Amino acid sequence: MSDQVMQIATRLKALREISDYTVAEAAAATGVSEAEYSAYESGSVDIPISFLLKFSALFGVDTTTVLTGEAPRLSVCALTRKNMGVDINRAEHYIYKNLAYNFNHRKVEPLLVTVVPGANAKMETNSHSGHEFDYVLEGKLRLKVGNQTMELLPGDSAYYDSIHPHAMQAIGGEACRFLAIVIP
């Protein structure tokens, strides 16, 4: 796994231990098996954003702190310039950029997501608590939510309960970029 995943894994373990949680307790509270939780803490597998959101809520820390090791400091307004934000390069299918990483106590996670052509050809799904809003900026996106599959073009959007398994795929031979607002 990448150095970034290993650093996140180290923070997961440290936060759990500081909080006096066992692996079994933390796994149950975040809705994963003990084996899956242990794999996240060891850094041997990619850590889904859905798990990181649950983990952050459980331990009362900002997701930015878990991802970067630094706490966000802004509480009135956070400006993120074009092509800036914090890269979250930990998912094989998607490239995430957190657009409000430096705002403390966020109620939503605004993410710029890029799906490259050919990624997630099998439409592997994930799910997490809360809701999600996706707005396509560039390219074409195939979005599957539950049993429904749809194609979105620039300017199209979808809002859904993200507990339902969902997956994204760039179609048409070009990358797709979309704004994802994840509401835990």
UniProtKB/TrEMBL annotation:
Alphabetized SMART domains for the sequence: HTH_XRE (SM00530)
SUPFAM superfamilies, per database record: lambda repressor-like DNA-binding domains, RmlC-like cupins
Superkingdom of source: Bacteria
UniProt keyword annotation of Cell membrane present: no
UniProt xrefs under Pfam families: Cupin_2, HTH_31
Domain HTH cro/C1-type: residue ranges: 12-66
Keywords of this entry: DNA-binding
GO molecular function: DNA binding; DNA-binding transcription factor activity
GO cellular component terms, A-Z: cytosol
Protein name: Cupin domain-containing protein
